[in-house]
User: Fold CMP/dCMP-type deaminase domain-containing protein from Marasmius oreades.
Amino acid sequence: MIQILKSVFLLGVASSALAHIHSGNQIPFSDPRFTLNGIPFSTRAYWMRRANEALPNPCPFAAFGTVIVNHTGNPGLGELICTGSNNNSATGNPTLHGEISAINNCTTILTSPAGPYRLTPSQASAAFTSLTLYTNAESCPMCASAIRWAGFREYVYGTSIPTLIEKGWGQIRIVSAEVFQQSFELPNPSRLLGEVLTNETDPLFSWQFDPDFLCPAGCERLGGRCQSLP
Ligand SMILES: *[C@@H]1O[C@H](CO)[C@@H](O)[C@H](O)[C@H]1NC(C)=O
Ligand SMILES: *[C@@H]1O[C@H](CO)[C@@H](O)[C@H](O)[C@H]1NC(C)=O
Ligand SMILES: *[C@@H]1O[C@H](CO)[C@@H](O)[C@H](O)[C@H]1NC(C)=O
Ligand SMILES: *[C@@H]1O[C@H](CO)[C@@H](O)[C@H](O)[C@H]1NC(C)=O
Ligand SMILES: [Zn+2]
Assistant:
């Protein structure tokens, strides 16, 4: 079932990425009856919620959170390797989107001599090909490219780029499926699962440019902007 849906989805993108963005015809993977690439929806939802919880508070303006998980050889929920969230404003580094923060964090954790993994750089690099990256919003082309360079086994996103654009976010209009399609020369295939648990990720990105949209739980409007309650 998923295989069929996924090929329909990719065909749609192949015909025209831009038309695809405007027509909003992505097929969401939000039906709890689906098993997504061998892993039940409930497990995907658990990690997507953890990606939401990777944020420093319930309503940062840039609410982009990521978790990186080892499902390989781990029945059940799998093992959390690291988290990350958008850190542009705290650091001044414009490349620190949630996904890049998480990849940096995982690299540190996997290679730390004091940590649980103690991998060499080449082992850490190889480890990414067996891991899954969950991110609460579809990756921009920079991050989608980083995900393909890393060779992640799976990449799972919540809110889509077309939805972010609809909500007022400035975006580079290249969807991840297109980056994935164009990266066929890279050695490690990655599975893409889009629009997972969007009913819980979309609200985190819906209040910033819409003064009437309800703040996420634990936050209220102060001076027009959602702020976390003390
Ligand atoms: C979001 O949808 C999923 C099914 O796709 C459901 O399991 C979950 O309870 C929903 N979340 C909320 C907050 O309603
Ligand atoms: C992932 O889990 C499997 C099974 O426990 C283990 O063999 C493998 O080393 C783990 N990968 C990483 C990067 O920790
Ligand atoms: C790195 O990941 C760990 C494990 O999930 C987390 O506790 C820590 O806060 C993360 N560090 C950063 C800078 O995101
Ligand atoms: C963001 O950067 C600050 C300053 O370097 C650091 O203290 C913090 O742990 C970082 N947070 C994340 C989520 O990466
Ligand atoms: Zn990005």
